[in-house]
Amino acid sequence: MGNYSVVTTYQDRNNEIKKPDAGVKRVLMIEDEPAILRFLSQILTCEGHKVEAVTNADDALNRLQNEEYDLILLDIKIPSTSDIELHEHTQKIAPTLANRIVFTTADVIGEDTKDFLFRTKTSYITKPFQDTDLRAAVEIAIF
Prior knowledge:
Helix content is 39%, strand content 22%. It is α/β, with parallel strands linked by helices and 143 residues long. It has one domain (4-142): Response regulator (Rossmann fold, 3-Layer(aba) Sandwich), CATH 3.40.50.2300. It has a six-stranded mixed β-sheet. A two-stranded antiparallel sheet has the order 2-3. Strand 2 and strand 3 form a beta hairpin. The radius of gyration is 14 Å and the shape is globular. The relative contact order is 0.16.
């Protein structure tokens, strides 16, 4: 899979077409499952966020080195590196952004990951989740 970008316009809750403005939050999504990627992108775009999505850690690191984001939405199990390693790289590249990562997971979380999430106070939501869960996690992380 390649990179996705959902940027130009969005429909608000009243189905009015709007263009992103200066208050729009930029979200980097790292997700390797296309259906979940589309679902999450649609929810966040409808909320007015600018979503850029990649399917692996290497592309995510490249984006982080060249772009600024307000939030990272990160699948715990992504190809080419661990979630913990990507978090550590993010701390080096964009330290304040490391505090605005929301992990998503479909699996039972292992003890190492639980310890990591507790130690770093990083938020996570478990798949399947409702769109309201996603909205709440994003709002807490960004604001």
